[in-house]
UniProtKB/TrEMBL annotation:
This is Calcium-binding protein. Residues 1-19 form the signal peptide. Keywords: Signal. It comes from the Bacteria.
Amino acid sequence: MAGGAAVVFTGVVAVPAGAAEGGVSFTRVQVNGGKPIVIGVSNEVAVPTSFRMATTHEWKYPAVFLYRGNADPTGDRLWHAIETSDCIKVSTGVCDFNETMYFDPSVWDMHNSEAGAWKVAAEVSFQGGGGDTDDEGLTVYVKRNSRLTVNASPEPVAKGRTITVTGKVTRANWETRKYASYGGRLVSLQFKPTGATSYTTLKKVYANGSGDLRTTVKASQTGTWRWAYYGNTTTGPSTSAGDNVVVK
């Protein structure tokens, strides 16, 4: 298990090392609806997963999991707990399953190096010994949550004068369980006029090395300012709250 974290299974066990493979087909595997798994520093994240299993073997403990390296027990695996439903029978020897994969950084140790791409595999144990572990040819990104703040001033402001918009980008540090500055990010400054239903990006600004954002715009109409960061392969996207400025 990645990072050496202790693991709690709920109704699921890992296939023993050296278990015989074959005799099982896993299909229709979905993890989190194909979306990245974004994890902060304090809240448990429950990831919905589903799959179909077909086999003529007597089986127990089917599960889908994330791994790096090898899908067998010699590789790294990432989850803190897994719950798998009973068989939802499709036909003889064919079952659908609903699964929830849990991640809780407030309880279990996580390493920042665990952010990024993980492969998906499925496995099952057979009654009497042995089992099957299959790579599913899917990739899931596990990402560190990010946060943004915003402040637009002065409030109110005379039309044509300068508004200064500041903010800060931070992201989850799983090892310290705190949010830390995330410098050098390209962040979009967005504006929504009063009465409008959506924001428009007006410019893009790089955060400095400490994650601080600062730019100026001309006051033209009353509305709300915010920052939006679109994330990357290791970090989730985020949007700040809005700061309304009245233009007189």
